[in-house]
Fold this sequence. Notes:
The protein has 184 residues and is mostly helical. The protein has one domain (2-174). It is 77% helix and 0% strand. The chain contains 8 helices and no strands. Helix 2 packs antiparallel against helix 3, helix 2 (12-24) packs antiparallel against helix 8 (142-174) and helix 3 packs across helix 7. The protein is elongated, with a radius of gyration of 18 Å.
Amino acid sequence: MVLEGMSLPIPSEVVMPLVGYYASLGFIDPVLGVLISTFGSLIGSLIDYYIAYYLGIPFLLRYGRLFGLDKRRLNSLNRWFSRYGAAAVFGFRFLPGFRALISFPAGLAGMRVVSFIAVTFLGHLIWDSILVYIGYEFATQWSLIIGLIDKYLYVVAIMVAIIIVAYIALKLRTKPGYSDSAEV
């Protein structure tokens, strides 16, 4: 779970139902499994947060064009994150693919680490608990459940991402007095 928290392609949708499955067989306590996994995810998320925090805006101003980021986009991201940061970190913890990536903008924006830890821990705790519960309750059908979760959550995540990007783009285009010369 540390690796999943660090944005590596190890999906909790596969790992956590297995914790529930093994809990149903009596090999692991489900509460202990959730807590250990949640702390692992938090550690991985903190690693990404601090990478972004210490590399920061100067790194992205220098190399951001490789990722399609320029000063204007960084300013937009910073303003958006200043407004929705804690809610974004919490909410994105439930979206596959974005779950770990949200740690980078949090670190870039310099989100207070205590707030980051609180909303990250809570988001991971809820997500991990749901997945362990599914694995526990459907232990006899765990491979079917993992396949369904993995398949449909990515569809939902893509739809939510499109809506968020469209909303941000619309807000930036219709915002009166928007200037490209804003400071980062």
